[in-house]
Design goal:
The chain is an alpha/beta fold. The chain has five helices and seven strands, in the order αβαβαββαβαββ. α4 crosses α5.
Length: 185
Amino acid sequence: MNTLSLVHQQLERFIRPGSFVIDATAGNGKDTVFLCGLVGKEGKVLAFDIQQQAVDNTRRCLAENGWEQTGEVVLDSHANMAKYAQPGTVDCIVFNLGWLPGGDHTIFTHADSTIAAMEAGLELLKDGGLMCISIYYGGASGYEERDTLLEYVKTIDPDQYTVLVTQFANRPGDPPIPVFIMKAT
């Protein structure tokens, strides 16, 4: 069991055909394609990335897997996701923080834009919606973001959201931290 498999298990239990899902960090498109498989042809996945390489990789991955009609990739910050969806319309939002695998490691997510994206996303979620954040950290990119996000999630309104922070206590190094936020129904 690792962060990816834990998050994917939860997404498989939660996302249904016809769902509207946001992939806040498109990366190389693997999660975008996975999410398309969960929402099916009648659903929609909207993916964001700030790097043209990630957008191109994700579009290619969608086309290779037959999901170009279901998945849409936008070259923009996830902090701007509210420009692309209406409040209360999104079933699930997924973040994989850190840097683009195989890309430039000097370009990575930052707490300020991630928190702005999370706040926008919380408003976009339907009642009963789910947000999953995988905090990859370590090296130049992540201790500050990790620490800031872990403090931020403590401030999320407990009357409207349930926040679950999970950690792999017996893993060496800097194992990613999965965070699940559920919007009340």
